[in-house]
Design a protein that fits this description.
Layout lengths: L5 E6 L14 E2 L2 E2 H10 L5 E6 L5 H10 L3 E4 L4 H11 L4 E6 L7 H14 L4 E4 L13 E4 H10 L3 H6 L2 H4 L7 E4 L8 H4 L9 H14 L6 H10 L1 H4 L13
Helix pairs in contact: 3-5
Organism: Kribbella kalugense
InterPro entries: Cytidylyl_trans, Nucleotide-diphossugar_trans
Protein name: Spore coat polysaccharide biosynthesis protein SpsF
C-alpha cells in the first residue's frame, strides 16, 4: 500500500450529559482536552478535532486554535457525517478514530495499531483494540479507510450508527469488512487491565485521573505503567470501579 495519508480524528463536545464540559476541566495547568491532544500528537500523525456547530463548542475551537490543532465543525447528533466531513476536508485516506474523554491514551499503542493497519495492506480492514476488551477504558482506538467511512455515511440509517460512527463497520453490516482486534501486550498486568477506567465520563473518573496526574505524573506514563500503578494501589482503582459504561444508543 503506497504511503497513505492517515490522520487521527477525535470527537469533542462540551454538552456531555454525565459530566458537562468535562474536557475543559483542568489539571496540572492544562485542560484535559489539551492533555489528550498532547498524547495524540506524540504519534507523529496529523490530529484533527471534530466538534459541533453548537455555540457552546466555540470554547473547544478556542483551545484548539491556541494549540494549533485544526478543527472541523459538523452535526452534533450525526457524528458519522461529522467524521466524514473532517476526513474529506483533510483529504485523508484512512482514519484513527478516538474520543476526547481519553486524556491518557497511549500514543505508542495507537502508533503500533497504525503500523499494523498499513502492513496488512487491506482497505477493507477495520482494526481496533476494543472489539474484545483487554485494555483499560480510555485507551480505545479504531482504524479504517475513509472509503469504508464514506460507504457507512451513505448507507447507515440507524440512529446509533450515526451517533456512534463505527457500528456499521465493526458489526460488518456491509458484509465486506475484515475485523482485527489487537489484544493487550503490555506484560504481566494484563489480567487486570480491562477492568480499569482511565476515561473521563463521570465525577468519579475525574477524581481518579486527577490523582494519577497530580500524584504520579501520569501524563508522562504509558498504559502498562498506569495499569501497574492501579494494580499496586487498589484504593485508586476503587474510586471509579462502580461506574457502568453507557451502552450504544444511550
Amino acid at each position: 500500500m503506497e504511503q497513505l495519508k492517515i490522520g487521527i480524528i477525535t470527537q469533542v463536545r462540551v454538552t456531555s450529559t454525565r459530566l458537562p464540559a468535562k474536557v475543559l476541566l483542568s489539571v496540572a495547568g492544562r485542560s484535559y482536552l489539551e492533555h489528550h491532544l498532547d498524547r495524540l500528537s506524540r504519534t507523529g500523525l496529523p490530529v484533527i478535532v471534530a466538534t459541533t456547530t453548537n455555540f457552546h463548542d466555540d470554547l473547544v475551537v478556542q483551545v484548539c486554535k491556541e494549540d494549533g490543532i485544526p478543527v472541523f465543525r459538523g452535526s452534533e447528533d450525526d457524528v458519522l457525517s461529522r467524521f466524514a466531513g473532517a476526513a474529506r476536508e483533510h483529504e485523508l485516506d484512512a482514519i484513527v478514530r478516538v474520543t476526547s474523554d481519553c486524556p491518557l491514551i497511549d500514543p505508542e499503542i495507537v502508533a503500533a495499531g497504525v503500523d499494523r493497519w498499513r502492513a496488512e495492506n487491506d482497505p477493507d480492514l477495520y482494526i481496533s483494540n476494543c472489539l474484545e476488551r483487554t485494555y483499560p477504558r480510555g485507551m480505545d482506538f479504531e482504524i479504517f479507510s475513509t472509503a469504508r467511512l464514506y460507504d457507512a455515511e451513505a448507507k447507515a440509517t440507524l440512529k446509533a450508527d450515526r451517533e456512534h460512527v463505527t457500528p456499521y463497520l465493526h458489526q460488518n453490516r456491509s458484509g465486506e469488512m475484515r475485523l482485527l482486534n489487537l489484544p493487550w501486550s503490555g506484560g504481566p498486568h494484563s489480567k487486570n487491565a480491562a477492568q480499569y477506567r482511565l476515561t473521563l465520563d463521570t465525577a468519579d473518573d475525574w477524581k481518579l485521573l486527577d490523582a494519577l496526574i497530580e500524584e504520579y505524573d501520569a501524563t508522562r506514563l504509558g498504559c502498562a505503567e498506569l495499569v501497574a500503578i492501579l494494580d499496586a494501589h487498589p484504593e485508586l482503582a476503587t474510586l471509579n470501579a462502580h461506574i457502568e459504561q453507557k451502552k450504544l444508543g444511550e
